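input
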Amino acid sequence: MGSSYSGQTGRWTELSLYKTKGGKFICHQVGRTLWQGERDRFSGKVCETLEEVKEFFGHRWLAKELYAEAGIDDAVEVE
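output
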């Protein structure tokens, strides 16, 4: 579990990011559940740019881990 543990038992999120030979990005998110009466949730998108990727996944801790692993700069400029 370590630092990646969300604190919610029975629910978790899985994020996947792929890059095509043509340079597009395939984003995939699965919200898993073991709770009775709930179903897993799936969403995905084909993105042209890294900005679109960050818009899809957002800036939560799990997305930041994905960006770090993929070598994506997630710095947000503030004025």
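quick obs: The beta strands are 11-19, 25-33, 41-47.
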